[in-house]
């Protein structure tokens, strides 16, 4: 795994990034794969700034999470199209394959998994908050760690699951529990609703597991409160929020 410079105030400069492929994840979620010459590598959990420049010189910058561990010059981003958004709808559906944008990074040194120890992990994702956690899961799989790893994935309904096939085939490397908040599939044992203390009970991991939580602000704050109430040490809980 590459070891990027994550020091504060020392991010890499803007680099050209050519779109190689686009994959649909949900009705509004896309995976975009770019080739970034000279990419220095990154750690799972980091993100990049993306810059678009219009013909008249107007520029827009947004931040997006990296969805996979470092592999040469390949950079994979998860893009959730926001209705009325200035950047995300264009990236999600209109940027032509082969076109170039600019990226700056990798950025962020707190919400990262560096693989320095084979400790157990508890990951909590809300919606597209699965993206940086997926980078951690993929890196962990690639390094063949065999300690317990659990993902609690909160989505509105079954159609909102990112990486559905990959997560479905992840057992026994990963225990996945999908929590539907608005509409559960027919026959589901758990009724639709937000994550509760009961969802944290009986997980096959020790109480001192490292915890990573990513999603909308309300989900992250509520989940972090539940983790602390369940006995997880505050210094073992790392959060990343958006919205």
Mean pLDDT: 92
Distance between the termini: 30 Å
Helix content: 10-25%
Give unreliable regions as ranges.
Answer: 1-11
Q: How does the major sheet shape up?
A: 6 strands, antiparallel
| Number of extended strands | 11
CATH topology group of the largest domain: Rossmann fold
Order of helices and strands: EEEEEHEEHEHEEHE
The helix tally amounts to 4
Tell me what the structure shows.
It comes from Streptomyces rochei. Helix content is 16%, strand content 32%. The protein is α/β, with parallel strands linked by helices and 243 residues long. It folds into two domains: 93 residues, Elongation Factor Tu (Ef-tu), domain 3 (Beta Barrel); 122 residues, Rossmann fold (3-Layer(aba) Sandwich). The longest helix has 13 residues. The N terminus is likely disordered.
């Amino acid at each position: 795994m590459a070891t990027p410079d994550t020091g504060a105030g020392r991010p890499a400069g803007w680099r050209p990034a050519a779109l190689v492929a686009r994959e649909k994840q949900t009705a509004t979620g896309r995976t975009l794969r770019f080739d970034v010459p000279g990419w220095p590598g990154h750690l799972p959990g980091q993100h990049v700034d993306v810059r678009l420049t219009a013909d008249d010189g107007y520029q827009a910058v947004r931040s997006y999470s990296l969805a996979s561990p470092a592999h040469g010059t390949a950079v994979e981003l998860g893009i959730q199209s926001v209705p009325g958004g200035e950047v995300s709808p264009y990236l999600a559906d209109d940027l032509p394959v082969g076109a170039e944008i600019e990226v700056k990074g990798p950025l962020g040194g707190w919400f990262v998994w560096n693989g320095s120890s084979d400790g157990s992990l508890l990951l909590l994702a809300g919606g597209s908050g699965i993206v940086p956690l997926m980078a951690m899961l993929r890196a962990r799989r690639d390094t063949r760690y065999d300690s317990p790893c659990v993902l609690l994935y909160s989505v509105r309904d079954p159609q909102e699951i990112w990486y559905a096939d990959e997560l479905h085939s992840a057992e026994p490397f990963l225990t996945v529990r999908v929590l539907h908040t608005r509409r559960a599939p027919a026959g589901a044992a758990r009724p639709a609703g937000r994550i509760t203390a009961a969802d944290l009970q009986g997980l096959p991991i020790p109480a001192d597991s490292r915890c990573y939580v990513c999603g909308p602000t309300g989900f992250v704050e509520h989940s972090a409160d539940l983790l602390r109430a369940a006995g997880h040490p505050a210094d073992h809980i790392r959060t990343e929020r958006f919205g």
